[in-house]
Amino acid sequence: MNGMEMARCLYEQQGREALSRAFPELFDRMAIGLAGEGSECFGFDDAISHDHDWGAGFCIWLTQDDFHRYGRAVQEVYDSLSPHQLGLPKRMDMPQAGKRVGCLCMESWYFRYTGGTEGPFSTRDWRNVPEAFLATAVNGEVFSDPLGRFTAIRERLLQGYPEDVRNKKLAARAAVMAQAGQYNFPRCRRRRDSVAAQLAISEFMRAAMSAAYLLNRRFAPFYKWMHRGLAELTILPQLSDQLASLAAAEGDMQRTIEDICINTAAELRRQGLSRQTGSFLLDHCGDIMSHITDPQLRSAHIMEE
After folding, report:
1. By CB atoms within 10 Å of each CB, which of 12, 101, 116, 207 scores lowest?
2. Is the distance from CB of 188 to CB of 197 less than 8 angstroms?
3. This model's pTM is above 0.85
4. What would the pLDDT profile of 35-62 be if each residue is shown by its tens digit?
């Protein structure tokens, strides 16, 4: 079993009965599932993941009022569960990781990852939250949520960035892809500056992945999972293999960069964000920015994101 399967098994085989029996008046107000930090919340855990913050466990999200009233008692019931009786490994959490499973305050949990107890609302709030934090707030699965409050916030976040914010970020990513990959990388190679060339490739790849998530209306996860997550995207599906080729320095790297930019430009046109016919992505930035309706955001520096 992977981490998500173990979480569901522990809940369904032990947790549901224990919690409903101990808290009949509260059980229908509990949101239960597994989401947040950790590879298992993205479904990316493997054998290497077992060395820390891994094992059978799930989250119980309570509203702030319920958490203050019942939180300690709910945690005690959660701690009494016996995953080893189900043949599941007991979860071992590192102190540095903080509390990821067990009884959690719903409002505090969302505030931790989004800066708001119900997530971001204003343009400023959306721009201030790192993409990886938003990806963390909407990953995983919710097994049960009769009250619906936790899920309602989650569903709103899953709709993705407001269009103005998405367009501003896309313009910034296109600018970095052009600057780092199409312009600086070949110049660094001609200068035989291998360190600068590697840095340019890194900047290009990160911007290209972020752009792909934005074009798919998804949030990019933490950097070490960005490439892994590309396999789940339907738009620009070829990007995963192209980036793997770049990382291995295989073939004509500049040709691969150009192919990525050609595909990205085509998708910008397909989504109605650009009318430019070329593949140099900096030329597309003005068109993307023109779709932003917020005057202050439209006038911000193109790289400011």
Report:
1. 12
2. yes
3. yes
4. 999 889 998 877 766 566 667 899 999 9
